[in-house]
Amino acid sequence: MNQLAFNYSTPPAVRRRLIPLKGLDAIRRIWSRRFMAHFGRPVAVRFTDNTSTMISFKKKAGKFELRLHNMFIEANDKVLRALAEYISGSARGNQCLDRYIKLNADKVGRRRGAARLSSKGKRYDLDAIRDALNRAYFSTGVEVPIVWGRAFEKGRRRSIRLGSYSFEDKMIRIHPALDDERVPAHVVVAVVYHEMLHHALGETMKGTRRIVHTREFKERERGYVHFLKAEKWQDNNLNLLLRKKRKAALI
């Protein structure tokens, strides 16, 4: 599934449905006809009041299934055309979508009690790690926000995603399981370095596929002085990182 997510510093709000259920079917039909004029292919749309993902889509049995925030119900033809380009794998409409979502940020609420994300953990300061990596590996500097992800209760897992970079909102999130005195500094640094490379090197699109781990990326990643050491530690200590049911959400 492809998705476009943005973060906002909006006041806490109770999640509520903006459109009455009885009116949604007619709205979907009218909206779909308008969108088809730009997209030209069958699409099933669902409108949501999601607080983080504004656009997501997948192709199933030759038909696109599209999930959009309610703000897109009132989108004009320019925005619909940009949306069609985005789903088709073109980046031409991304700036238009970015502007539209930011202009409608007041329609995006936050879950009551949502914690504020921070770069400073109990053990490691992500800002300090990013700045040190900039001095050592990035001559032009990588100016990108970096925060620890949130945590919530989740079932047992056999794998863990230690970091993520959002190409849409240009932000790095690191799994809080790494903010532990038993995790060596060079391991945390390796994960941060990996995500900074995503920001520095960007992406390549092949149709609707996003290619991020290119040959250049892999070569640069191995340039980190403790790369192999960090990889070995992660392989040998997966159980430590999964030691509790409490996991972090990289949102």
Describe the structure.
The protein is an alpha+beta fold and 251 residues long. It has 2 domains: 2-107, no CATH class; 126-249, Zincin-like. Helices cover 36% and strands 20% of the residues. The protein has helices at residues 21-39, 77-87, 94-103, 126-137, 185-201, 215-221, 227-236, 238-241, and strands at 2-5, 43-48, 53-60, 63-69, 146-148, 150-153, 163-166, 171-174, 204-206, 209-211, 246-249. A 4-stranded mixed sheet has the order 1-3-4-2. Strands 5-8-7 form a 3-stranded mixed sheet, with helices on one face. The protein has a two-stranded antiparallel ribbon with strand order 6-11.
In a nutshell, what does this entry contain?
Helix content is 36%, strand content 20%. The chain is α+β, with helices and mostly antiparallel strands.
> DSSP helix count?
8
Shape label: elongated
Estimated radius of gyration:
20 Å
Order of helices and strands: EHEEEHHHEEEEHEEHHHE
CATH class of the largest domain: Alpha Beta
Superfamily (CATH H level) name of the largest domain: Metalloproteases ("zincins"), catalytic domain
Placed side by side, the strands forming the largest sheet appear as: 1-3-4-2
Average pLDDT, to the nearest integer?
Answer: 78
Beta fraction of the residues? 15-25%
The CATH topology of the largest domain is what? Zincin-like
Number of domains: 2
Main sheet specs: 4 strands, mixed
Judged by helices, strands and strand pairing, the structural class is alpha+beta
Shape-level CATH architecture of the largest domain: 2-Layer Sandwich
Low-confidence stretches: 5-22, 111-115, 244-251
DSSP E strands, number: 11
Distance between the termini: 15 Å
Q: Helical amount among residues, as a percent range?
A: 25-40%
